[in-house]
Amino acid sequence: MPTEAILSTVRQFLELDPTVRMTLEPIKRGASGRTIVRVKTPGHEPFIGVHWNEDREDNSQFIPVAQFLKQAKLRVPAIIHERARYRVALVEDLGDVDLLSLKDRPFAERLPLYRSAFEQVDKLFYAKPAKDFHLMAPFDAALYRWEQNYFFEYMVEEFLEMDATALRENKEFVALSERLGTVARHLVHRDFQSQNLMVKDDQVWLIDFQGLRRGRQEYDLASLIFDPYLDHTADEREQLLTLWEDIADERPLETLFHECAAQRLMQALGAYGNIVKNRGDEWYKPHIATAGRLLGEVTAGTSLENPLAPVLAAIRQKIQ
Questions:
Q1: What is the CATH code for 2-91?
Q2: What is the pTM of this model?
């Protein structure tokens, strides 16, 4: 059992007698197939215990990627102890405050945290892994196409119960994946959204970075700026782009940025559909409506508007 593996690792690391009482507080995060708990023991500061399964390749990347990012001076939790053989890591506890939990604070108060988050994306641009460092497969046309099919399967077919054949056969989606997949130079987090951006000491720290790979920097930017959990207004998105321009001395090209946002929102909708339909987690349901609205906004006037129209209408009808 995952918790038994974590308990065993903690006792070995701290050299605790079996009679010493430990508390494991579950931490629910996303859908990565991992067990994450806060470990509390007498006489020690709390830390995080992580156990992962082998269902997803990226889970085994957590430890080496964490160590690489720490060496590159990005703000990530330190690995306190690891037993990779048992798929367990003990990790620095960053607390419970993430960017999403601060959503109701005035946007002006949160802007410094967005700057802190964007600075991490900018630092990724300059991070150079060793030539033999194993990264997940880069964001190429095939991976973008996989994300689209994930959307077609779990949102369109399973959640909305619609026929996705025409969408799968539509060449505009294939063309989008090929356009975005032509460049994969920069390191990207791949899930750069508010739940994965922890706030500690007035700075943003990255978690859930095991999917690190080469891709388009604009994908990470779009993931946060068009984050359905936060649902930024048009004015807030403009302020965030201005903030990014101040950090990186350039703005993403609008067409490319919106294409990355459309791709990311389809991926998010696929994930939400999967979680709601197959795991019964209703927390994600209102975010489906938000993501659908944003997807309609970024594809308005493009070749994707018409093929997506029936899907977005079905989302509006189902979630009122």
A1: 3.30.200.20
A2: 0.95
